[in-house]
Each structure stands twice: as C-alpha cells, then as structure tokens.
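Thread: Newbie trying to understand structure tokens

Hi all, I'm a second-year student working on a class project, and my supervisor (Dr. K.) asked me to get a predicted structure for one chain before our next meeting. I've only ever worked with sequences, so writing a 3D structure as a token string is new to me. If someone could post the tokens and maybe explain what I'm looking at, I'd be very grateful. Here's the chain:
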Amino acid sequence: MALTGIQIFKLLPKTNCKECGVPTCLAFAMNLASGKAELDACPYVSDEAKAELSEASAPPIRPVILGKGVRQKTTGGETVLYRHEKTFFNETIIAATVSSDTDAAQLEKKLLIYNAFQYERVGFNLRPELLVLKDAGNGKDAFAALAKIIAEKSEFNLVLMTEDLDVMKAGVETAGFKRPLLYAATKDSIDALGALAKDNDLPLAVKADSVADLIPLTEKLLEMDVKDIVIDSGAREIKQALEDQVAIRRAALKDSNRSLGFPTISFPCEMASNLDMETMIAGMFIAKYGGIVVLSDFTAESLFPLLLERLNIYTDPQRPMTVTEGIYEIGTPDNKSPIVVTTNFALTCFIVSGEIEASKVPTWLLIKDSEGLSVLTAWAAGKFAGDDVGMFVKKSGIFDKTKNTELIIPGYAAAIAGEVEEELADWTITVGPREAAHIPAFLKTK
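---
Reply by user tm_fold:
Sure, no problem. This is what the structure looks like when written as tokens:
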C-alpha cells in the first residue's frame, strides 16, 4: 500500500540539506508520495528506511527486465489502468516462436531475416525483441544448441519454453548469460524451476488454469525470494484470455493485490490457426494489457502494424510526438530540388514526407521545431511565425546543400509569407497546398 507524504517524511533523515533539489525533507517526501521524485535523490536516507520506502513505493505491477544487450526490455511497472490517466511505461514485448527441431543452418538464415525487421518512425527504431525457443521433444542437446545460436549470434533475447527440467537446465547452461525467461512453472514444477531461476538469477513465468490459481504459485515464488515473475492465466480462448488480462490488471492496481502484480505473457499463436488472426489477437493484447505477446512467426505485414500500435499506445499522451528539427533528404535531392518547410509535429511530418515520397520528386524537407504543434496551431501560437521560419532556414545549413532559393511554405501558413520574404530577402517564397494530398501534383508542376 502506498505511503502518504507524512509517513514517508517520518522515515527520512530530516536534515533539510537541499541536496535532493528541494528545500526541505517534507517537500521531498511529498514529491516522493506523488511520484515526482526518486528515493535515490536523497543521499542520507538509511538502508532500513530505503528498504521500507522502496517496497512501499514500488509500482503495483513489478517491472521485470528480460534479456541483455541492445534489445533488453523491461515489462510491467505500470501504474494506471487507462493510458489517459497518466501514461503506460514499458511496451508490450513482441515475440516469435522457434521450434527446437529447426535445422541450425535454417535458424541462422531465419535470424538474419528477423533482424532485418527494423523500422524508423518518429526518431525511434521499432523492432521485435524476443524469440521463444519451444521444446519439440528432440532432446536437451538440440534444445541447448539452438538456445546457444540465438543467444550468441543474434540480438534477440530468449524465452526457454519446456516442461522438461533437464532440457531447461541445458538451455540455461548455454544461454543463461542472455538472461532468458524460463517458461513455465506450474503447481507440479514450481519448486524445481523456482530453485533454478533463483540460482541463476533469471526471470520465471508461471502458468495456471485460472487467475485465482496463479496466486498460490506467485506467493510460493516470493517465499523462495524469486521476484522477477511473469504470469500466464492459461486461457487460450480469446474472450477468456482478454477477461483474464483485465482482471489481473484491475486486481493489481485497484485492489493492491501484490500476488497478481506482475506482467503477463499471452500466446496468440495458440489461439488462432493463421498469422493474420494471430496479429489481430496480438493487437488486442497490446492494447489490454499484455506484457509479452507470442506469435508463431515474424512477417513484415504482421509486425509493422503491431509495432506502430505499440508505439502509439505507449507514447505519453501528455507529450506530443515530435520529429527532430533539421534537414531531411527525400529521394536524392540536388541543386534544383524543391525546398519544403513544415513543423515538427510527427503526424504532420509523416503525412507530408509520405506525400513527397509518393510524388517521386527529390525534395529537401526542412523540419522546424514548433514544440510538437501542427502547422495551423503552431502559427496561431506564434511557434511558426515568419521571422522565426526565416531565421531557421538561415541556420539550418540548407545553403550548403543547394543553390535553390525558393522556399515552399504550408498553405495553412500563407499569412507568414511576407515576413519570411523580409527575413530571406533574396528568396522566393511560394505558398504550397493546404491539403497534403495535393502535394504530389504541386511538386510535379515545380
């Protein structure tokens, strides 16, 4: 249960040293209680108080780190039921399945294909992070060999999926350095897999037949001091699986049920007969409230929309999505190519850049920082004024890239044309179309 500011204050050193960035310990305590400060900011808090405060201030859903390396991800750690209440923090991790009877050479080829699934969007590199190695019953040596290949020859992190303890141990032996998730402990294997996870400091998934049946399993692991837990209610029927996701999230957030305060793993690959249907189900779990979703395979047409959905849902709704200010080359522009300027609101940028690409006209696209506002809103707020746009063009470095001196401004910002001309005295200022859909025809006439 969360502590109040006064309860937290009683555990602080009360030195009012100001080293935490606020004038008093009471103010710091209030910031801690409201989530506006981190406990580590206080250099003098005792270890005993730190332990008590850390436990009390821990998020209702425990964050669990999966894997190591560039694709290491954290799942869980959420604090709200609805995104608009604050934000969602740790993105749903998207995984594909690899069978342990896959030929080693075939696996390496597949890893090259999987690794190529990376998409640039709003300055982020969107990509999947996880592979589930599923035991096909062909022995621990084959399982361990493929686990080793994935761990050593790819950036992907691992879920080791088997009911055989010896097979699991073999996988841990070859791939344990990558911090794989062990899937899954049941009421019959909880002791053995819990000990294996604890001895190797690895996260462990638990699987039951219902949400209620998960509670004794997680409580048993907590007693064993295994805290990095991922939970699976066992539901493989779509309606029940969704109900379980919602029930688990509500129990953790609304009822403060620490026994269910863990990220979840779901298997769309076991709920559908084709990848298209799997993708639809995975999209549902990304929205509510999957920590990990497992597909049977990765394909561009399945993965790209899921990554975009994930990006949109896990972007802070209180902060607009923006693109970095600067010069963007679309195609291979030269000295005669058009120069277009717009704001850094991500949606505007992607629509404009997409229409420019569709025109097949190589273009210099200048993105001006407007604090994430669209063209009309930025102009009304004074963030896309004529003199500012003119100064931005001068400082952007476009003079070093082209001899063209015609600037195309958005149609909705036509009012700033005169001010831009005053700032760029030797330039021609052309008002472009208001609607992005008209950009291709406009550029072709240029």
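A couple of things are worth pointing out once you decode it. The mean pLDDT is 93. The longest strand covers residues 93-99. Feel free to ask follow-ups in this thread.
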